[in-house]
Amino acid sequence: MRRWGIELASSSTVNLTTRPDAGRRFLLVRLITLVLLGLVSWPIPYLFSDYWGVVWALALAPLVITTRSGSVTAEMGTLLIVWWAFGDRVSASPAIYYCPLAAALSVWLTHDLGSRAASLLSTAVIGAWICRSIDHGVPVNLTGVAFLGCSALTMLVHAATSLRRPFAPVRSVDVIAASHTGNTLHLVSRFAAELIEAGVQVRIHRFFDPTCFTPALDGDALVVAFPMIGWKPPWPLDHYLRTNLPAGKGKPAFLLSTCAGGPENGFVLPWLWLWLKGYRVMGRLWVIYPVNVATFRIGPARLWRWLDSLLPRESEMEITARSARSFAAGKTAGFPLVVWPFPLVLIGWLLDNRWIDPLLYRPYAWRKRCTNCGLCVETCPMGRLHRGDPVPVAAGECELCMRCVNLCPQNALHLFCWTEYGQPYRPKWPELAAVREDVLHRSTKTG
Ligand SMILES: Cc1cc2nc3c(=O)[nH]c(=O)nc-3n(C[C@H](O)[C@H](O)[C@H](O)COP(=O)(O)O)c2cc1C
Ligand code: SF4
Ligand code: SF4
Questions:
Q1: For residue 3, how far is its CA from the centre of ligand 2 (angstroms)?
Q2: Which phi and psi angles does 206 have, rounded to 5°?
Q3: Whose alpha carbon is nearest atom 6 of ligand 3?
Q4: Ligand 3 centroid to 247 CA: how many Å?
Q5: Class (C level, CATH) for 353-446
Q6: Which of 53, 218, 337, 372 has the fewest CB atoms nearer than 10 Å to its CB?
Q7: Among 208, 362, 402, 403, which is best to mutate for testing ligand 3, by the most ligand atoms less than 8 A from CB?
Q8: Which residues lie below 8 Å from residue 68, measured CB to CB, with a gap of 6+?
């Protein structure tokens, strides 16, 4: 099925009407875990204060069983590593160590159930943990305050999302889709195909840069899709959501992202901007896709082609389909927002923003290889690359999308000192990476 220039993979989508709802099937496991979590909030921190890493890992088990999601396992796994780096700085109370873990577990176990009673129970469990943590000793340092503060935020967002009444089924959805090498657009096409199956009208608006993005968002719900770039959305999209996105007037919204490893706190800001604009965000979803950063793709090209062929996993596509169905039905969908007390997003902001990018990442074309075909010039979403003789030249803003590096057919274009040593990512869905709108967009900008 071909719509809006996007091939919708409807033939390979999962028909959920014939499948048992995975969330409901594990209802008992989820509820038992929640009750246990409530009961153990007093003794566990003290009994196991020296083994919090082990407890943390064990606590993952019910989550992995109930969600059966590689994304969930990867997100919690990444966070476990970061936790090791920061956890021992919480000097006030061992109970505070476990507070973000308890909060994450509780909200994750109940978010997609669509049951207000279960959500109330999980909110109560987190509330109890926070109160008892404070009882055990007021945090005396920044990390302690961050651990408790982020747990409280997780709880509040969860309560605001899932304790309120669900929406009426959605009839039409606008999707704002930023995608540099096509991965995110592939995920969008799977999500959209499922919405269409559910009878929802979908309009996809490709996002390039905020200066020429003025879509009519008149559907009754919004989906914002983006690749994770430095543990956050690409900066032009962030700018658009913060400044130009029209008011939501209570509409439901959903956040969709592709990542190569994990988003950490990458959903916090878009969630916040949508909330401030009056949208009610019903959930988020991220799926692991091939990494498109040549800097990290070191080693033989064949190895990377093989790794790329493994992603995305079909089980994640099932979760995508299920999330689309829940969203179409007006319910909470996908994953909950978990606010983690870790500052990776700040590092992302320092390394990638509109001021630093033109200075730190300088594209150049290698004369020996470049045929001056002009493809990089046509596909640069920021209009930074210009026709030159004998090779293109760079001037202007950059959003670190790496399209120029990944799409150059001669492997001639590189970001100085960043991408020379790696394999470029040859998009798995080239028709989604460089669709005609790119060229149209470029001619509108320059003309
Ligand atoms: C500059 C840059 C930074 C990235 N940072 C992250 C990151 O922080 N976390 C992550 O999981 N993936 C990261 N990625 C990988 C992309 O999010 C991933 O490959 C995504 O699927 C690309 O989607 P697209 O093809 O729609 O652009 C980064 C990619 C680029 C180019
Ligand atoms: S895409 Fe590659 S070969 Fe074509 S002009 Fe750009 S650098 Fe040269
Ligand atoms: S110069 Fe390259 S990395 Fe920068 S915005 Fe253009 S295509 Fe993307």
A1: 30
A2: -75, 130
A3: 380
A4: 30
A5: alpha beta
A6: 218
A7: 403
A8: 22, 315
